[in-house]
Every structure is written in C-alpha cells, then in structure tokens.
Amino acid sequence: MRVVFDTSVLVAAVRSRQGASFALVNAIPSSAFQICLSVSLYAEWQDVLTRQENLPPDRTAEDAWRFLRYLASQAHLQDIHFLWRPFLRDSDDDMLLELAFAAGCRYIVTHNIRDFAGCECLGIQAVTPNQFLNLTRATS
Length: 140
Known about the structure:
By secondary structure, the chain is of the alpha/beta class. The chain is built from six helices and five strands.
C-alpha cells in the first residue's frame, strides 16, 4: 500500500530511535507499504532535516542528505497535475493531501492529525505513526 509520510514523522525518527516513527522509517523498504514522494515534499524534507536543530549530535548535514537520498530511492515519485489549494486549514499541508490523492494513498502518516481534518471526504485518512504501525502489523 502506498502512503505519505509527513515531515514530522521523519523528524521524530531522526531525533529518537524509540517509537513508531523510527520503527516505520527503519522498516523501509517494506513489503507492507511504500512511501510516496513529490518534488515539493522532498524539498520540504531537505529544508527541515538539514537544519542544525534536527540533526542528531553525532550527525552532519551530509548525513541527512544521504538519508534523504536513500528515502527518495525507495519512494514512489508521483507527479501532481492538479492543485486544490486551499483545502486544509494549514496550506503547507495541502501538498501532502494532493500527493496522497494523486498517488492513490489511503493514509497520510503524521503527528499532526488535526491539520488534516476534512481529507476523509477524499478517501484519505490521517493517522499517527503508531496507528499506522499497528495497521501494517495487522495486515502482515
């Protein structure tokens, strides 16, 4: 199944090896899911994950770039030919919804579920990393 990971999931995975975010990112590549990526989401990942405050003490920006290139190599790259903005409360999250819809995803994995209120009408559900990890375990 295809899925979109919000940047918040990657930040949580990088900051801590504990928890569902790390477990999901560490599972890539997975037989249970494939992350989807657009150019705009990749640009956001680059911007956020290479910031000094998001780098673990023993890692550099170059390490973050290698990590991002690996994730991109494992992702389904999706072109988006339509925009619905604004649709969500936070317009920065619209690109995730557009990606999820274009790629045929049922889930957006995020730590900010409230930001995606209304996406259910498009057949997409926002779930926490823990909820999605439980879903993948139940289908395995």
